[in-house]
Design brief:
alpha/beta; 20% strand; globular; NUBPL-like; metal-binding; 4 iron, 4 sulfur cluster binding
């Protein structure tokens, strides 16, 4: 995927676009319903919104937005997929590429290929927000999106039961480990709202989402009650926010959408994604400015000379790490024992003159590096780079 493709995937150009993943630790929590209604709420606010149905095996967004399953996407003159549109929202989904009763029988590499196509090879045009409706769990799809695209943040959807909240916590921790900011927790199915009296009965317990948000130090975006109209509206392909905008649940969706528009400030680091070919200088990321109170694990500038790699961090700290030190500290399976973490790379086989030949971004949390000895599977997390020994460089 080229840098240009990735920029198109974000809407084509610079600005305040947000790339937000809607995630859950387990299935059945109503995540896709939340995504569809938040998207409609944002569109009604005047935002340009896109939705990627990233649940390759169980796509449901098109049905919830009234997009016919047999509506095959067209191609633009430059061979990009033209997304479907409904309720002012642009949509891309596996459901638009297959028949209703045809399962997607795909291995991991093909799933990754489709995901990258859905984000980077679609004619999105100018977007303010691109929502990614993720499948449940913490597997290939979640990791692929976190590595390939600079996510503004993730929203974790759960129900109030303890079992759901415990699994939601795992999904939240996974996002944190790959440096995806948590924009907040949504508690779905948070009690039954009586249509006659408006009273809410808490069928599945109460307050668990808010409690876990407080415990983990992340925002609580809101609680969405159960209403029969939610199911009816979804089955009819008319999201509740549009079909019954005055309902308690619709109002909750709108408040969550409003909160998300105000959250997820710019990452403040390098212009991600990038792919820097050091030999000819192409793809080198533009520098970002350090800031007062900046993060210790956000890179704002990279440079390379005959000594090694210069890294400046958002908090103003600067490092110069030797090229050979970088190669010796690779933690891939070819260089480290996967069980013990002990190095298996023989230092005598690493030339003193070795240099990086290519450096690329992996989401918001790591750099990939290829070296002049042909090794190209190294992943260097920002934390690991910050912890490496380096030459003394004056902080800025």
């Amino acid at each position: 995927m080229t840098q240009q493709d990735a920029q198109v995937g974000q809407g084509g150009g610079q600005g305040e676009r947000k790339l937000i993943a809607i995630s859950s630790g387990k299935g059945g929590v109503g995540k896709s319903t939340v995504t569809a209604n938040i998207a409609v709420a944002m569109a009604r606010m005047g935002l340009r919104v896109g939705v990627v149905d990233a649940d390759i095996y169980g796509p449901s967004i098109p049905g919830m937005l009234g997009i016919a399953g047999n509506q095959k996407p067209a191609m633009s003159p430059d061979q990009k997929v033209i997304p479907a549109e409904a309720f002012g929202i642009k949509v891309m989904s596996m459901a638009m590429l297959s028949d209703d009763d045809s399962p997607a029988i795909l291995r991991g590499p093909m799933v990754t290929k489709y995901l990258q196509m859905f984000v980077a090879q679609v004619e999105w045009g100018e977007l303010d927000v691109l929502l990614l409706d993720l499948p449940p769990g913490t597997g290939d799809i979640q990791l692929t999106l976190a590595q390939a695209f600079p996510l503004t943040g993730a929203v974790v959807v759960s129900t109030p039961q303890d079992v759901s909240l415990k699994i939601a916590r795992r999904g939240l921790r996974m996002m944190q480990q790959v440096n995806v900011p948590i924009l907040g927790i949504v508690e779905n199915m948070s009690g039954f709202a009586c249509a006659s009296c408006g009273e809410v009965t808490h069928i599945f317990s109460k307050g668990g989402g808010e409690a876990i948000a407080s415990e983990l130090g992340v925002p609580f975006l809101g609680a969405i009650p159960i209403e029969p109209e939610i199911v009816d509206a979804g089955d009819a392909g008319i999201p509740l926010v549009s079909a019954h905008p005055d309902s308690l649940a619709a109002q909750a969706y709108v408040r969550i959408a409003e909160a998300l528009v105000g959250r997820g400030a710019a990452h403040g680091g390098l212009a991600l994604p990038f792919d820097w070919q050091l030999s000819d200088g192409t793809g080198k990321p533009a520098d970002a400015a350090p800031m007062s109170g900046g993060a210790a694990d956000v890179v704002t500038a990279l440079d390379h000379d005959e000594i090694g790699l210069m890294i400046r961090w958002q908090d103003g700290h600067a490092q110069l790490i030797g090229s050979r030190d970088l190669r010796l500290n690779c933690r891939c399976a070819a260089c480290r024992d996967e069980m013990s973490g002990a190095p298996i790379l023989d230092p005598s086989r690493v030339p003193q003159t070795i240099t990086p030949t290519r450096i690329w971004s992996l989401g918001n949390y790591a750099l990939g590096m290829a070296f002049s000895d042909g090794h190209s599977s190294g992943i260097y997390t920002f934390k690991a780079l910050r912890d490496m020994q380096s030459a003394e460089v004056e902080d800025v």
